[in-house]
Amino acid sequence: MPATALHKFITLMGLLSILHTAYSAAQHRSYLRITEQEFITLPIDILIQGIISLFMVMYGVMYIAGDFKEIRAVVDLENKSWETLRNLPSFQIFSHRGRSLSS
């Protein structure tokens, strides 16, 4: 499936929400230092926002990145013939001195 503007928007909102979650966590830690309280855990709303933001980013990136390819190289090579595999265009040289020698 191609990436649409919706997927890009979801990814952007997820990234902004993760940044907001990090800022909220830092602000909470600062509040605890000022009030001289011990840090035990983050509030549940910050945790939920962080988890939802993470899933939003993962969903958006999955569609933006495109189709997944098989890890095994054999899958890609099964459909190619030996002539196709042996053809190495990087070694084909067309501008060489043999052209000037043949007259």
Automatic annotation (TrEMBL):
Pfam families, sorted: MMgT (PF10270)
Where does it reside? Answer: Endoplasmic reticulum membrane; Golgi apparatus membrane; Early endosome membrane
Q: Does the keyword Translocase apply?
A: no
Q: What sections of the protein cross the membrane?
A: 40-62
- Quote a single Gene Ontology cellular component term: plasma membrane
UniProt cross-references to InterPro entries, sorted A to Z: MMgT (IPR018937)
Q: Which top-rank group of organisms is this from?
A: Eukaryota
Q: Name one GO molecular function term.
A: inorganic cation transmembrane transporter activity
Q: Which residues form the signal peptide?
A: 1-24
Topology in the lipid bilayer is annotated as:
Multi-pass membrane protein
Q: Cite the entry's keywords alphabetically.
A: Endoplasmic reticulum, Endosome, Golgi apparatus, Magnesium, Membrane, Signal, Transmembrane, Transmembrane helix, Transport
> What's this chain's function?
Part of the endoplasmic reticulum membrane protein complex (EMC) that enables the energy-independent insertion into endoplasmic reticulum membranes of newly synthesized membrane proteins. May be involved in Mg(2+) transport.
Query: Into which family does the record put it?
Result: Belongs to the membrane magnesium transporter (TC 1.A.67) family.
Record note on quaternary structure: Component of the ER membrane protein complex (EMC).
Name of the protein described by the UniProt record: Membrane magnesium transporter
Give the lineage. Answer: Eukaryota, Metazoa, Ecdysozoa, Arthropoda, Hexapoda
